[in-house]
């Protein structure tokens, strides 16, 4: 169904962002939006669902983009294979022009996706590298000075485990969403 299926290439515990593009028939937009909204609400009830955004088209007749996130590919596949999802997909029949397009993202590019963002193309790799380096360098210094007094007597491997877990958690949930907002214009300009 117009799907860029990376699901076989992605580890089952890897977080994923799914981007679905759908275009309603002009005379069925209201019904299409009701079905799309119901589908999204039911998806949110599934384990591991981290949220969804519906990006409506600017011009009539363009695609709607539905962006939703799961904490793991495994949990996304449970939703994708569920009976309730299939019931919603059956309700979409006759409401759309063409087939839906699905893209599954699982890498660093998801760190640079803002909620409600229209442009879903990741920034150039050199720009992502600069932002990630700035973030990790600053955060590493902060973590070193804050954690060292508490973990310095632990075995080196335990120290590294605590430090890297803290670093990755802060990068994923706090620092990168903030950096993506702060540097959004620069990241996505030509």
Q: Briefly, what is this?
A:
The chain is α+β, with helices and mostly antiparallel strands. It is built from six helices and five strands.
N→C terminal distance: 32 Å
Structural class: alpha+beta
Number of domains: 2
Uncertain segments are 1-6
Please summarize the sheet with the most strands: 5 strands, mixed
CATH topological fold name of the largest domain: Alpha-Beta Plaits
| CATH C-level name of the largest domain | Alpha Beta
Order of helices and strands: EEHEEHHEHHH
Side-by-side strand order of the widest sheet: 1-5-2-4-3
Question: Characteristics of this structure?
Answer:
190 residues, alpha+beta, Alpha-Beta Plaits, 2 domains, five-stranded mixed beta sheet, 6 helices, disordered N terminus
Describe the secondary-structure layout.
Blueprint: E1 3-4, E2 16-22, H1 29-43, E3 49-55, E4 64-70, H2 73-80, H3 83-92, E5 101-105, H4 125-151, H5 156-182, H6 184-188
Parallel strand pairs: 1-5
Antiparallel strand pairs: 2-4, 2-5, 3-4
Helix pairs in contact: 1-3, 4-5
């Amino acid at each position: 169904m117009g799907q860029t299926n990376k699901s076989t290439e992605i580890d089952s515990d890897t977080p994923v962002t799914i981007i679905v593009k759908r275009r309603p028939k002009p005379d069925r937009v209201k019904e299409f939006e009701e079905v799309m909204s119901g589908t999204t609400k039911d998806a949110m009830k599934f384990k591991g669902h981290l949220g969804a955004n519906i990006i409506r088209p600017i011009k009539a007749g363009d695609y709607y983009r539905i962006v939703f996130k799961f904490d793991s590919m495994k949990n996304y596949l449970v939703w994708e294979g569920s009976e309730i999802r299939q019931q919603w997909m059956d309700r979409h029949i006759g409401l759309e022009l063409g087939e839906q397009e699905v893209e599954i993202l699982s890498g660093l590019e998801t760190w640079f996706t803002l909620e409600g963002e229209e442009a879903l193309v990741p920034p150039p790799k050199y720009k992502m590298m600069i932002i990630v380096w700035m973030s990790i360098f600053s955060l590493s210094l902060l973590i070193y000075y804050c954690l060292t007094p508490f973990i310095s007597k632990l075995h080196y491997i335990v120290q590294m485990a605590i430090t890297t877990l803290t670093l990755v958690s802060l990068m994923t949930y706090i620092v990168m969403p903030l950096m993506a907002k702060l540097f959004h214009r620069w990241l996505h300009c030509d």
